[in-house]
Please model this.
Amino acid sequence: MAETPLAERLKRRIALDGPMTVADFMAAALGDPTHGYYTTRDPLGAAGDFTTAPEISQMFGELIGLWCAEVWRQMGAPDAVRLVELGPGRGTLMADLLRAGAMAPGFREALRVTLVETSPALRAAQEKTLADETVPIGWADGVAAIPEDGAPLLIVANEFFDALPIRQLRRTEAGWREVLVGLDPETDALAWTLAPGPGPAAALIPEAAARAAAPDDVVEIAPVAWGVAGALARRLAADGGAALIVDYGHGLSAPGDTLQAVAAHRYSDVLDRPGEADLTAHVDFEALARAFSEAGCRAAPLAAQGDFLRALGIEMRAAALARAGDPAAVAAARDRLIGEGAMGSLFKVLGVAAPQTPPLPGLEG
Ligand code: SAH
Model:
């Protein structure tokens, strides 16, 4: 099979500059302006490469909408609140959230929405999904571009942090060495290699992961995600509000290579077709929560997605939808979202609150 155009370009870059970090490889594979995976396509849904919770059922976005409205009410129902979604995909979660938000009188009127999205293809999909929405909606390229008007923030992110570039380090006899993408000297193909000497990235390894690592183990660090968390936490601490982060990952920092490539609902080789497969890594929620709390916010105890959605009333919502529609389809979607062994336990929910925000519903008792 011919190589992807991005593979050709990355190989030239490596030949010129030397091996690149996993983070640089991941950032190019996902976000390259001409050949990046997200830049060039809408990967979601049955016909795409993977499916996400909001694409499985409207219940997911609706329940998150009720959660947002409840946090807003507990904050004293401020006249203005900025609702931010990070990596909104097709805009499905936001559409369901806003529709359900009408249940709380005054909530929709207080909202200004900012969608943080880098992909032109997905921005177009979001514009289409939300075309008839009357709440004001704007787009931002990154968290630094979220408008600052002093209003408290409600921040939602589903399967966003797993797409941010990670770095990997391997424990060798000589100490930590960064995992790099280089060229196979014989075939000239993209190939894994190790940095020849120690580097500054080792200082970022979470202590618990370093302590638990056996010889040859890989540990992952997520400086981009931690930087995003720090920036969001500083905004929350200044303006008030809360964040809800849903993703797959582990509750405690631990060694493990979790980088994976998925195309057409199948795992593929990470180096195989850069730009044509989704690349993700599991979220280290312990380290992510620490990045929020070090910047002045309160992180709620991590919850399993199933427990969180049950606490928000998914069973009742499913029963109502079943009466109005196809009971078997509704039950199947509910079970996918909350089932043990399905998304219910694999996916976790991290709630983050500004110091002045009351206990978060469904997460802090
Ligand atoms: N939340 C959606 C989509 C998840 S896919 C859902 O649940 O269906 C990941 C999303 O994050 C996509 O919208 C992708 O374009 C976006 N994304 C990835 N990296 C990003 C970055 N660095 N900045 C902004 N958005 C990014």
